Amino acid sequence: MLKKHIVPFSVVAALFIMAKVFAYQMPLAQKSLLKEEKLNTTIPPTEKPEEEPKSLMAQLNFAEETLPLGDKRVERKMKKILAAHTYGNTQTHRLQRKAAEWFPIIEPILAAYGIPDDFKYLALVESGMQGGVSPKGAAGVWQFMPGTARSYGLKVNGRTDDRYNLRKSTVAACKYIKEMYVGLESWTLVAAAYNVGDGRLRKQINNQNQDNYYKMKLNTETGGYVYKVISMKQIIEHPVRYGYAKPKELLAYNAE
What we know:
Layout: H1 2-40, H2 56-59, E1 61-62, E2 65-66, H3 72-84, H4 87-90, H5 94-112, H6 120-127, H7 146-151, H8 166-184, H9 187-196, H10 198-208, H11 220-237
Antiparallel strand pairs: 1-2
């Protein structure tokens, strides 16, 4: 009689134990499946939206000060002056040769005085295309007038003319540029003032109640001066783009 009861009890106990084991194994199996699904699931890479190429005007600047975008008059003038400096018009490598010769001396002096590197292109605009003394008496790489040169520490007399000394004249130019920036507070305006004179530019700013170079009405030479500097910068940095074969000595400066 006892044996008859023991058998059903054993079956029930075995079933109970099996149910417990199955209940314990289920969460583990689910976790394992989830882990396997994660490993096998490939997440597609996020596609970056294609950046639209910048317009020519958006790429141009002087000393990190940009041209006014959307101004058709400024854009037409900039393109016209750029076109005037292409190889087809000048047909010379004189600018690149001068840059390779002058820039290693000019660049560290500009940096020492805290003046933007783009001012080195003023030297090319001032005297890169021509040599000697201007009709007004300006001379040297930075085209200093005798009186201005003396006021910034250069010797100009019958025996010595420091205006032709690249290092000394660059130091003098830096002093002059930095002095103008104190009142103008715009490197673009300082570049324009280098051409027309600090006093004359300030007078125009007051008369026109306008301190944006690109919106001011200036004489033809000064009104195109910064555009010429920007054009010079483009030619030196991207010679091939403007029709110049890149000279070997400029390979260290540019990457076209």
